[in-house]
Amino acid sequence: MKVVVLGGGIAGLCMGIYLHQHDIDVSVNERQIFSAVGGHAFLMHHDGITVLNELATESNCPLPGKPVHTFILRDADGLIVNEKILEDWQCFKRTDLLACLNQLLPASRLRNNRVFSHFVYEADQVVAAAFSNGEVEYGDVFIGADGANSIVRQQLFGEVKFEPGKVKEVVGIIQHAELAAALQGKFTKFQQKDQGLSFGLIPTSATEMVWFMQYDPLLADIPEGINPRDSDQYHELLHELCLNLLKDFPATVQQVLKCNDFRTSYIWNTRDFDLLPSFHHQNVVLIGDAAHVALPFTSAGTTNAMLDAKTLSHCLLHYPNLSTAFSAYYQLRAESIKEHVNLGRALRDSFLSADASDVIPLISSALK
């Protein structure tokens, strides 16, 4: 059996590593060459950390991640609203995790510069994946791991109906040794009580911190039509937006904004879609954001992608045929995914209603 993975992000790499470790012929195909720059950071729960440890069992590769042991919720004046001890959570930079996973997968299994174009069929069965550079990869099983805007999903099921997340998020990374040292192991979140506005801060190293601003775009926003990729105007407006919305937040927040290079920050338009009725069609199956997208309030997206890879690889190895394996994979994952979609929407609604006490399950209940 040869497996062709379309997408070399976290889900695709985990899938490739699992299959390679079990002597399955696998090809992971990624649109670009990995570069350890840019990207953001995220929290990962015990379940995802367990998957990473399993993947790295036979490797000397140092594992990334910084333990996060405390969640502190403060109001916009800096006063503590609530404080919770966290069990087995870590903060990862996306680039650090990708670098680790790239080391765990032999280079011979990874093909870069391959932008998926379409499937090649014989007798109504997919036999190969074609790429925009003219290359073709033949296989027996095809796994779509090409993200939220998945072309594989579109070709299997058509366009999904994305639900607007109603909340936007600005993300940035700063270097600030003093602040990072003071907040090691702590996820600090400042929540405006009377409107949908918050600011979060998590150390990713001894000197580096990732920050985010979640906001209701009805409060203020950047005008539509401005290109975020190459526009100085965009980054100036983004800077002004953050300064304006967060002007009454504590000195810690102002410090972060002062140190941040807004040319490396961006706005994330959050969105999701309802659970698909299936994750597969014939010999093609979806994992990660290609299969399901939940709002960021659950902090579960990366963990879910890694669990997809673990579950699907187990099913492929232990069930007698593809149909049974794919059905079992869906049954094992669908209920949890549906819960996370619903939880994300509930937490979003609590955020927009500005009830700070309701925002705590962002961490404590995300993966129970």
Automatic annotation (TrEMBL):
Keywords: Monooxygenase, Oxidoreductase. Pfam families: FAD_binding_3 (PF01494). Transmembrane segments: none annotated. Residues 2-317 form the FAD-binding domain. InterPro entries: FAD-bd, FAD-dep_Monooxygenase_BioMet, FAD/NAD-bd_sf. Gene3D superfamilies: FAD/NAD(P)-binding domain. GO terms for molecular function: FAD binding; monooxygenase activity. It comes from the Bacteria. PANTHER family: MONOOXYGENASE, PUTATIVE (AFU_ORTHOLOGUE AFUA_6G14510)-RELATED. This is 2-polyprenyl-6-methoxyphenol hydroxylase-like FAD-dependent oxidoreductase.
